[in-house]
Design goal:
This protein is of the alpha/beta class. The protein has helices at about 10-20, 25-40, 50-65, 105-115, 155-165, 180-185, 220-230, 250-255, 275-290, 305-320, 325-330, 335-345, 350-370, 410-415, 445-460, and strands at about 45, 75-80, 120-125, 135, 140, 170-175, 190-195, 215-220, 265, 295-300, 375-380, 395, 400, 420-425, 435-440. Strand 2, helix 4 and strand 3 (about 120-125) form a beta-alpha-beta unit.
Length: about 475
Amino acid sequence: MDEIYYSSAGEISRKIKSGAVSAKKIIYMTFERIERINPEINAFVSLRYDEAVEEAELIDEMIRKGEDPGPFCGVPVGVKDLEDVKGMVTTYGSVPFRNNLAKTDSIQVERLKRAGAIVVGKTNTPEFGYTGFTKNRLFGVTRNPWNMEKTPGGSSGGSGAAVCAGMVPIGTGSDAGGSIRIPACYCGCFGFKPTYGRIPIGPMNQPFMMRIWTPGPITRTVEDAAIYMDCVSGFHREDPDSLLIPEVNYQEAIKRPPSELRVAYSEDLGYARVQGEIREVVHQALKRFEDAGYRIDIWDGHLPDLGDDWLTIASCEIYSQIHSILDEWRTEIGRSLLESLERVRAMRFDELIKINKRRDELRRKVFEIFSKYDILLTPAMPTEPFNAKGPPPSEVDGHPIPLLGAVAFTYPFNLTGNPCAVVRAGLTPSGLPAGIQIVGPVLRDDMVFQLAKLFEEINPWNDRWPEL
């Protein structure tokens, strides 16, 4: 049964429905795996053992009665600790919230449970998801299963590490500047950031003002992410920005290979630097696309680099959530986060107006790309995973990069709202994953999925995982 640890969620669900294995057995095996492996990786920070076992027993009873518990029947799931699970503490990785007991499930968690998934615990995250590596004062450092000295990325680093290490087949994530895509790349998983509004946010205990933050999945297969999206997408009254259920069914969409796509590739978006080893792995992966009959044009245009603007917007987002406790708890909040929050508190309103004008210009530039092309490909991350304790790299191959240069390809598409996926392109000579980012037009999440599924078939990645 050891192979179950790296089975897909779809495979686990089908085995439970067929009676080949019970949901209760899967949950027992999951907790055994977490107990054995998690102490070194630190992906999970809290568990709900009794509740998970009870839910597994209910699912087994439904199976005996001939009922269908849903597409994620008995599948164990890890939930990022920025998201509520009823009866569990949501700490946001922050000391002031160490006793913040959730009274309800988030919309995303509620919908996953309704689909038969069983939440086994909460996964680690940096404080309020502020950094691209996973470390906080409450729970410490999360490590990359490929190399324990390296980071799994952030801010959904706990979910990425848990999926990569075979603890669970699915981890929930959220992405305001790359927080799904960074750990998906560094852990060699599949990560998907939907079009803004595709998955509702809520219940809305705090305001989300800047419209850059979206939930989404980290999985080991494209199919699992497609099932996930079919389960959690669609309008909810708690989130006025949420979109109607799309006409497309993602599970059906990935069965149809995309044809006659106009595909562009940018190695730098006009401003980024990429590590040589990453560039080589990505180029080899692009050849697989071309071998499959797709013409890839080089897009040599330039997007405006709004890294500093994104940082301000992201800080405004966090400030809007915790401004009321900032003075009381300032000594318990991480220094770099506190500095950013103090900076936006003192910011003039006309500065924000100028930032939003530049954001609109970025949207126009990206729209121009998609008036000519259907898909834009980029490297997912400029570098290999860096030290687990940080800081992020300040140079690439001897060339200095700005603060956001370490995540240069992700944050622009939070400012524009485009759907993006990350697939593993291969492994570097150091044995660490490198990824490709697939960017689609707004609302064409299905097209991104189709190309990701095609790449999974022509360049399989989910048959090789770290030995633990």
